[in-house]
Amino acid sequence: MKRNSKLALLLVLVMLATVFVACNKQEGSTAEGGSQNMIMATGGTTGTYYSLGGTLAQLMNSNAEGVNITAQSTGASVENCRLLATGEAELALLQNDVLDYAYSGTELFDAKIENLRAVASLYPEVIQIVGTEDIKTLEDLKGKKVSVGAAGSGTEANARQILNAAGITYDDIQKFDLSFSESADAFKDGQIDAFFVTAGVPNASIQDITAQHKISIIEVGSDIAADLIANYPFYIEFNIPGGTYPGVDEDVNTVAVLAVLATNAEESEDTIYNITKALYENLEDLANSHAKGKEIVLEKSADGISIPFHPGAEKYLKEAGVIK
Asked: What pTM does this model have?
């Protein structure tokens, strides 16, 4: 009963917000000179989403006509879906798996948020399973103290899906629901044996751990990866090169989700077209301004997208030959 009430309330809020956003677009929220004010929801102030969002906003403001975009710190992917749905943000950086859950009303969401739209895939967010030196395989996690990420987080969903694909359930491990920073601290103190983190490679916090501790990065084999991708099309297979982390000399096969730029269905086709064009026709400037910019390429802009593209983004990506 409680779940049904939450579902009904969220649906009502999204419908009301959609009407509000549509009215707001008609009235035209503008800045000086007639530009449309837009919020880009990102993540915490110390994270990649926030710094990249600021760089993207500057790039788009300089190269896309009629927009004035401001990057805003948020609670990241799950919150960003809500902000897009209610019109509190017009653009957002988030993980493509969380975007899929929100659109379909599964995993982390009790109701579908159907006004979400994709703009483009940006770069891989790699599922890295860090373990003590003696843990070599997923099977070795059985009986161990394992942090699967904060309860209700995208990382937790990644962990559960990967373990299940390997035939492992939470009953087979001693499960801890810790955030990434909590997991790193607990691992350093010997309170856990392994933890999952979904982040770019290399990750500075994992590198920091290797200064005092020997680690392993546990492989997700190609057979398990293929099973995951068949069931969850937002995953891609990813290879972590040997030497990425001290003491991990061999390549490690794993899977990744993707950081994506998203919007809502109420944004105008012209606005999102201009933003998408500004992004992909100024990649050299982006690469010179932010480290993640080097990983953003036009050819991969449609990878891992499992929800509809916004018509403006779709128009540009068709012109560029990325999608048909």
From this structure: 0.82
